[in-house]
Task: structure prediction
Amino acid sequence: MTKTAHAFRLLAAGLLLSAAATAAHAAEDTLVALVPAGPHPYFAAWEQAGQDAAKDFGLEGGDYRVPPKWELSQQNQLLESLVTQGYNGFLVFPGDPVGGNGVVSELVEQGAPVIAGGGCLKEPSDAAFCLGTDTGNSAYIGTQELIKRMGGKGKIAHFAGFLVDPNTQLRIDAVNKAAAETNGAVEVVQVIADIDAPEPAEEKINAYLAAHGNEVDGIVTTAWIPAVVSANALRKMGDKRIKMVGIDHDEVVLQAIKDGFVDGTMLQNPYGQGYIGTFALDRLRSGCTVKEDAPFASTALTDRFIDSGTTFVDASGVDNYVGAMQAITKEIMADFETKYLTCE
Result:
């Protein structure tokens, strides 16, 4: 078992008490599909989360199903196929925040509730709500932490994710906002996006650092694979002058924090998204409805947003990152039903 897989098991163990209180109300025929927009390590946590939630709440299943490519047409075809196979609840990371609404409406019309997970659909949407990271706030906090470690001045390079990801532009804007608040002391001198895959990340990040590494004082990464590639690049350079704040919990990034090559990372909570999302889909199938006055937050895409949590960890807290994710998930689960749902 990998360290990451073991971490997911620890997360599951910490949620069993809250699960016991609600398992008796489950619909035993609930079969949930957790469907990202394409292959990506961020969503690996959804697989264990769906299985754990199905077991804890007595569901027929919670299965992770991945389109072969990051193409909306591929995701739509998979979703249409899954509903014919008997899946009746869907946690979906939108392949496109606007274009994804069509197939979501089809699923809901067939009696299968949909929750947008990890990224939101643009309103109006038939998705019940969006459960994901407040990506703008996360990138903003991460950049503020980076600026502190840069001594409040210098030049930043920002390595970002897919432009089709609805979160990417929000992250770019947030990084720029944090830098702008320094009144010129900090400047974002480069943004390289569309590199959340191994080949483009390796090529573009390494080329940039080879040519301009001596010109930048800080790196912020707001996507998983750029964080891993950047951490490896700084380790190979062997120079800890450049400060870096990454994202997520890849073991490469966590080890680089321990070894002093990376200053910290912004944790997200994909396990919590999968676990809570699967639970909520079953409750919707069991007759619950979304509260009209639920305390949703608003984003650029939706007025029905639930923050699945984010937190910064550095060398002082990296060994307990599982505990940080667990605490966030348990806090959300503790009163999720009473806050967001009306159940007879």
